[in-house]
Every structure is written in C-alpha cells, then in structure tokens.
Amino acid sequence: MWFIWLALGLSLVTVAGLYTRRRVVEAAAALGLPPRGRTALRWGIAWLLFAYPAIIFLSVLVSLALGSDRMRGFDGPVATWTLVLPFFLTVLTVVQALPYLLLVDVVAWARRIPMHRGRAVAVLAPIVLVAIYTPARILWERGELRWRHYTVAAPAPAPGVPPMRIAFVADLQQDDHTDAARAASVMKRVAADRPDLVLSGGDWINMGPDHIAAAARTAALAPSRLGTFSVRGDHEHFAYIDRERSVGEVTRALRAHGVEMVHNEVRRFDHHGRTVAVAFLTYSYPSRTSGEEIDRLIAELQGADVRILVTHQLVDDVAARAKDRVDLILAAHTHGGQVNPLLGVWHVPLARLETPYVDGRYQLGGTTIIVTAGVGYSIVPFRYASPGSVELVELTW
Q: Are 231 and 201 in contact (CB under 8 A)?
C-alpha cells in the first residue's frame, strides 16, 4: 500500500508541477520576463521538482547493482540544503497553490481573459503567499513538542491501589536531523516524570546503521521501575538492505542498554497486586502480522486486570480485532501527518488516507486508543502544521 501511495503522490507532483511551471512561465512572460529568463525559469523549476526524486531512484538502482549492503541516506547538510529541502518546499508550494491556480484558469476560460498583467498577478499571488507562509510556519513550529497527559480508568476499581504511570514515546528516528542531543533531552524529560513503565512504538532510527548505537544509548536514558519495552517500527528494518540484519542489530543494541524490543509477545507486569498485560504487536509496512497471530496475542491478554496493546501502525482491521477485548491501544507511525498541507484554508493530515487514528485520543467501544505524533521526521526533514508529542498515561484504579 505504501508504494501505491508513493506512486500516486509522484504522479500528482509530476502533473501539478508541469501545469504550475507552464502557468508561472506564462505569467512571467506577461510581466515582461525576456525569453532567456523564461528558459532559466523553466529549468530552475524542473530542477526543484524533479532532481531529488531522480537522484534517489538512481541511488537505489546503483546500490542494488553494486550489491551494497545499505541504502545511501540524504540527511547530511549538503544534500539537505541543496536537494531535500528545496524539493519538498517546492512540492508543498505547488500542491497548496494548485486549487487557486485552477480557479484562476476556470474564471479566465469562462470570461475569455487572456494572460495579461492582471491575470499574471492572480497566478503568481497564491504561489508567492504559500511560498512565504509554508517555511515561516515550519520555522515557527520547529522543535515544538507536546507533552500530553491522559487518565485511563482500569475496568475494575481497586481502592488503595496507586495510579500506574506509563510513558509512551515513539518515532524519535534518530539521525542528523533528530540528533543525539535532542533525542537525549526528550528521554531525560520522560525520566523526570518518573514513570512506572516506559513503552515505545518503535522507529528509534531513521535510515542506515550509523545511528543505531546512539539511538540505543538514547533509549536507556529513561529508566523506570518496570523497564523500557518497544515494538518494532518501520525504520528498524531500514538500516541495511537485509531487513533481518537491520532488525537484529537494532534489537541487540537496545538489549545491550537494558531496553527490550519485543516481537509478537505478551509481557505481564505486577502493579501493587494488579496484573497489567501488554501485547507487543509487530505491525508495519515491512512486517505485517497475520490476523490469526493478532487474535492469538489478544487472547493471551485475557484474564489480566488491564489489557494493553502496543503497535507501531494501527489500521482499521487491528483496531476492530482489539475492540472491547483490549482496554488500551498505544500506537505511533503517523507523526500526526507530519506534513499537513493547506487545502483551501484548512490543513489536512495526509495520514487520514491510511488510518482514521492519526493523532491523540479516540474511543472505540470500551477500548481507549492513544496515538502519538512522535518526535522525529520520516522522509521529509521537517514538520508542517503537525507538532510532535510524547504521551504520559496515568492508569487509575
């Protein structure tokens, strides 16, 4: 499914980009830009829109042809500032300005208005406004992290039992953008909340093996009475082309620092005489657990005083299987959309294309669902109208 959305997205970018480029060049000509300037403008827009994806695909093909054990990352400062950021900011500008450009064209067609100075200004105005607003908002919100507190009541009251404090953190995706210092500051603040149990939705690294050791050290910075436990995320599979090697290295690095990455198992924890059972479900794009296995894990939770399911990715099928059989679901992966473009005057979380559980708290029958927006970045090295979050859950009796 991820590849389908990627193909659709690239197709939209290509069509919208070519359309926008044509309108921009025509508008520039109407405002007096000479032919040589128009040629430079065409090539400049083409570079901004198509150079980065072309280089990415070429890099993948070369890596596979040469038998490399890893894919090259593009998170260094040179690639970030010359390729990655220009590409994504240009794409966002095109996608967000597109409805206004279409409206201008419809009105011009209906009223037979040629491309004169007034129409040129109408074409360029939304592009300029969006091109200013988008990076301004990204910079304004950069580093913003919400610390959200939730209270979840256990199914059966138990007078005298103190609340159980659970910290849920995910998607740090440590790399050059979410470096060791920032990731460490997040986990140290988690530790300052003195949780009884730390749970993670995975994605400790972003891509490549360079940050595995540092991410494992980061994970150990939030000790708790009952320990720190994590599911596998998508990106645990992306350190090497060999996915099993990737997962194995991350798992061993975390274990060396006292953090367990649990794969399709149930762990039981005692909290002042009450049993809290947690199922760690591996569910992500690279590794989908079958429905039968999900049902087995949920069945193992039964009989506990509190039943919790932790998963990286939460889709409708998993939620439906857990409904009323699990008291609390903790999920990650969405980043709250991470890049939520304007559609008209509203920001739309693109993560809704794959799941209704995008960010925050939901109720599904007797099952409470909490989805974290995470901390780091995936693919795009910034957040847009989607600040990160860490979830602190107080389980009351």
A: yes
Three-state SS string over 144-169 comes to CEEEEEEEEECCCCCCCCCCEEEEEE
Q: How far apart are CA 35 and CA 195, in angstroms?
A: 65
Domains and CATH numbers, the chain: 2-141 (no CATH), 146-396 (3.60.21.10)
C-alpha span between 374 and 390 (Å, rounded): 6
pLDDT tens for 300-312 read 999 999 999 999 9
Averaged pLDDT of the chain: 92
Residue 228 — φ and ψ, nearest 5°?
A: -120, 130
Q: Phi, psi at residue 35, to the nearest 5°?
A: -55, -40
Residue type (1 letter), 23: R
Confidence label for 2 from pLDDT (cuts 50, 70 and 90): low
Cβ atoms < 10 Å from Cβ of 41? 16
Residue linked to tokens 């924890």 = 269
For the chain, the maximum distance between any two Cα atoms, rounded to a whole number of angstroms, is 81
Contact 137, 339 (CB under 8 A): no
Q: Where are the beta strands (DSSP E) in 222-334?
A: 228-230, 259-261, 265-271, 274-281, 306-311, 328-331
Token pair, residue 134, equals 């988008």
Within the chain, residue ranges assigned H as helices are 2-30, 35-65, 77-79, 85-111, 117-141, 180-192, 212-219, 243-256, 291-301, 316-322
- Residues 80 and 202: their CA atoms lie apart, in Å, by 25
CB–CB of 108/66 below 8 Å?
A: no
